[in-house]
Design a protein that fits this description.
The chain is mostly helical. It has a domain at 1-35 and 42-118: Serine Threonine Protein Phosphatase 5, Tetratricopeptide repeat (Alpha Horseshoe). The protein has 13 helices and no strands. The chain has helices at 19-30, 43-59, 63-75, 83-95, 100-112, 120-132, 136-148, 156-168, 172-184, 192-204, 208-220, 228-240, 244-251. α12 packs across α13.
Length: 261
């Protein structure tokens, strides 16, 4: 048992992003154009230009741009969804250049069978390589594999340790995963109050799934004072940031499940 992992575009590459590249990705994913004195191009033109720029940088050896471009293909944002193309873009940077974010993307493709034959053993091995190279999100995903017993022995203690390592390194999804393990008593004694604190930390740092989980705790009064007002505020925040699950729960206040977005 484990939480949903964020989508590719949520974790395409490290947060340390140059302004120009960030603008390119925003254009590609949202179609927002820059304001200039020339006639405003259409959103589709902006997205095409963004993809072209990312492709050019990737071909020039910018592995980070390859990972961003792969995320767009996996999500179908600015380009037609094409998992095989997403895999192709990160295979070289991971297997030949050993670039950890590319390995995280490739490992996720193996775990899901997106554009490549599903292979949990290979996926988990790639997550381990990324984790060992210092990619803490890779550690989070390796911990998830241990929690589920996918490609590695099921080991909740190891899963907890890996999530804690990621959370200590300020990876929001690592803190969210740690909160989930703590709430469920996986690899550690069940402690709802601590779980709520971890979910709050992860939610504040941008893990939308953690916002939903904390909302559930407020709805149920599990380890925290019951408050429908707090639950609704958390769901609204997550919905406004793009969580379809949170938006669905806002329309049905009695719904407090943890199914994927």
């Amino acid at each position: 048992m484990s939480r949903r992992r964020p989508s590719e575009h949520e974790r395409a590459a490290p947060v340390r992003t140059g302004g120009r590249l960030l603008l390119i990705v925003i254009i590609a994913t949202t179609g927002i154009a820059c304001t200039t004195s020339s006639p405003k191009p259409s959103p589709s033109d902006d997205r095409a230009r963004a993809v072209t720029l990312l492709r050019s940088q990737c071909d020039a050896g910018s592995w980070r741009d390859c990972v961003y471009l792969a995320a767009l293909y996996h999500e179908g944002r600015g380009v037609p969804r094409d998992h095989a193309q997403g895999v192709l873009l990160v295979r070289g940077p991971c297997l030949q250049q050993h670039y950890p974010p590319a390995c995280v993307s490739l490992g996720r493709a193996y775990m899901r069978g997106d554009g490549i034959d599903r292979d949990w053993v290979k996926g988990a091995a790639i997550f381990r390589e990324a984790c060992d190279a210092g990619d803490l999100y890779g550690c989070t995903l390796l911990g998830e594999a241990h929690a589920k017993g996918q490609g590695v022995p099921k080991d909740e203690v190891r899963a907890y340790a890996l999530a804690k390592k990621a959370c200590d390194g300020h990876v929001p999804q690592g803190c969210g995963e740690l909160g989930w393990f703590t709430l469920k008593g996986m690899g550690v004694a069940r402690d709802p109050a601590t779980a709520a604190r971890l979910f709050r930390e992860a939610c504040d740092a941008g893990d939308l799934q953690a916002c939903g989980e904390l909302a559930t705790m407020y709805q149920r009064g599990d380890g925290i004072q019951q408050s429908d007002v707090e639950a609704t505020a958390l769901l609204r925040r997550a919905c406004d940031r793009g969580s379809g699950q949170a938006c669905a729960r806002l329309t049905d206040p009695t719904r407090a499940d943890k199914s994927p977005d």
